[in-house]
Amino acid sequence: MSAVASARQILTRLHEVMAGRTHAQHKLDRVVEIIAESLSSEVCSIYLLREGALELYATQGLNAEAVHVTRLAVGEGLTGTIANNIETLNLAEAKAHPDFAYRPETGEEKFHSFAGVPIVYRERAVGVLCVQHVDPRRYEEIEIEALQTTAMVLSELIAHKELVDGEGPIDLEVTHVENDVLEGLALVKGLAAGHAVFHQPRIEIDQVVAEDIEAERQRVYRAFDKMRDQIDALGKEAEFGKGGEHVEVLETYKMFAYDEGWSRRINEAIDSGLTAEAAIERVQQRTRMRMREIDDALLQDRMHDLEDLSNRLLRIVSGQLGTAATQGLRRDTILFARNLGPAELLEYDRRRLKGVVLEEGSLTAHVVIVARAMGVPVLGRVTGIRTRVAEGDEVILDADRARVTLRPNQQVLEAFETRFARTREKQAAYAELRDVEPFTRDGTRITVMMNAGLRDDMSALAMSGADGVGLFRTEFQFLVSSTLPQRDRQMRLYRDVLDAAGDKPVIFRTVDIGGDKVVPYLANAVAEREENPAMGWRALRLSLEREGLLKAQARALLEAAAGRTLSVMFPMVSEPWEFDAGKKVFDEQLAFLRDRRKLVPETIEYGCMLEVPALADMLDVLAPKLSFISVGTNDLTQFLFAADRANPKLAERYDWLSPAILRFLARVSQTLVGQNVRLGICGEMGGRRLEALALLGIGYRRLSITPAAVGPIKELVRKVDLAELTEHMTRLLASPPEDMRAELHKWASERDIDLD
């Protein structure tokens, strides 16, 4: 018998049981009899979650006296493991499994084989359906599928109280407690408070069993057609490159969208008696279980693609297409999501969006880069979101300490408000320095610039009092777009940025995508998946290969800066010839514009990022060609330490105050003494007061940092005697202390310099 026939037979007989007028326990007893008989299994049992434990509610084949007596904690025994992991087990010999737990009252010692599936309600296991057999054997795949389909129906029946008496309520809803703390990985630091809103509101499947199978099949067909049209439309929008490269833009999505195997499995689930929504969810549950068994990261990514498409299909068939962004935020919000794209984040009202909490996420994710620019704190790698967070919950997000507190009580709220008020007081004090030039106590002018990447970021230039934009990340426009931005669109952005800056300088970094910032429409730029994308085919390396990409950007920048000064910075330069090649593209486009009597910039300054350590040994060759150099401390540090900054296990090794990093930076500074090259720091290191203190002491006089850090760094500069600090740093680097941080804190404290 096929899985479809098995499931349909079970559902038909279950429907007959439900139509009866007997009490709930009798119905449960009949359910296990039907399942055992249909699967030719000697045992069938149903465990349901009550008062936090899995209780045996019905059994065919085990001792009847064990019903409502045998209880297992979630995570205990095979049944508890299934519920805890929301996974399927299929064992020829149950006792051989390390999680096997024997319950003598059940009389199960004579049974060898075991298979169990979770009964899932709202992405949480509320019970387990399991079968057992005397002979050692693994159940067939068609039998497991029949069990999984049956478990979905049981979930609906239990939720509607058709299988359980009111005297023994099942734990369908999570009991939410005050001050529930979830921990994660700080992706963008900061404090925020608001109410919980899910990016994609939960889709409730109200009906699992189909009344008209053919009607459900047609609903799925229409949903597939609409989904495929959406994917095809995205592909047709591609505007980049040469010779039909856009064919590969959405290759993986198309592969799944048109995969006959996927649509066939959904159809089979409908044939077994499920509605369109339940069938999609049924196949999606199976996909999630398979994802847990996959160790290969690339295959996991592909399965995530299928998960995303399943969600899209489910929303189409249910008619629930919107996100919380389309519905609008009505009050201060902490947004919860499995993951987000940068374009999705930008759809939200920034006045209401106070913070973001993600189940996934990494330090180098596109959405994190954009959130940092927006000043929105983000916490990632947070587990338990769907089961512990309720829509509308009051939430405190403390990304500084990598935690989020749900439903805080009055005491916790008051403590947060006190801390937040101190932060606001400091911010007010920093705001008063907006128009004050940052001179050290001994009269040295320090240039404090800000980083930006979006048109809206430019409003922070006047508000922060920064000296200019030391880094404008042009890749943001590429990251938030579904297609390669056309030259005219790029030019409008760059011109708007220069207009907003007025007389203040702006340094445009050419696009840094590829490697760890993959955009879908350039997915084929890297032939194979890279083991270490941060050190891979990205930034200037990719731009020089994709010459059309850099040419378009060069033209856009040159035209946008017509009649003004244009400052261009190339990222990820490893050797002088790469800078020469990048500048050559600009020179050619400049000549092209002049030949056509187009207005061009009055002055063009060229610089580069020093992120690759090898470039430090070539500065004598490169420096005469440059107007400025910006040290990119984020990438430089991970390259020097061979410590991936996205890996939390290596966080302690990623230390900007390591003597090794400081000595390296000091040598770069000393090498450029006497050269007509402006040297600066571009990265998070310069925006932290303790680290900035060290940088000032080793010769750095230009910092480009986040807008929020401009005020604090200005305030720090005005308290420093540079000559004294330089002498102290020279001594520390000559004979490094055991704890550089503690030593600098001590020095600053003795001089009444607050580093918090």
Description:
- This protein has 756 residues and is of the alpha/beta class.
- It is 43% helix and 16% strand.
- The strands form three sheets. An eight-stranded mixed beta sheet has the order 7-14-13-9-10-11-12-8.
- A hairpin with a 2-residue loop joins strand 5 (113-121) and strand 6 (124-133).
- The chain is elongated, with a radius of gyration of 31 Å.
- Residues 237-250 have low confidence and may be disordered.
Q: In order across it, which strands form the biggest sheet? A: 7-14-13-9-10-11-12-8
- Shape category: elongated
Head-to-tail CA distance between termini: 70 Å
Ranges with pLDDT <50 over ≥5 residues?
A: 237-250
Count of DSSP-assigned helices: 27
**Mean pLDDT across all residues, rounded?**
84
Characteristics of this structure?
single chain, 756 residues, alpha/beta, eight-stranded mixed sheet, eight-stranded parallel barrel, 16% strand, elongated
Reconstruct the topology from this structure.
Elements: H1 3-19, H2 24-38, E1 43-50, E2 53-60, E3 71-73, H3 77-85, E4 89-91, E5 113-121, E6 124-133, H4 141-159, E7 180-183, E8 185-188, E9 191-198, H5 213-236, H6 251-257, H7 260-271, H8 276-292, H9 297-318, H10 324-327, E10 333-337, H11 342-346, E11 353-358, H12 366-374, E12 378-380, H13 385-388, E13 394-398, E14 403-406, H14 410-431, E15 447-452, H15 459-464, E16 469-473, H16 475-479, H17 487-501, E17 506-509, H18 539-545, H19 547-560, E18 565-570, H20 576-595, E19 603-610, H21 619-622, E20 628-632, H22 633-641, H23 659-671, E21 678-682, H24 689-697, E22 702-705, H25 707-717, H26 722-734, H27 740-750
Parallel strand pairs: 9-10, 10-11, 11-12, 15-16, 15-22, 16-17, 17-18, 18-19, 19-20, 20-21, 21-22
Antiparallel strand pairs: 1-2, 1-6, 2-3, 4-5, 5-6, 7-14, 8-12, 9-13, 13-14
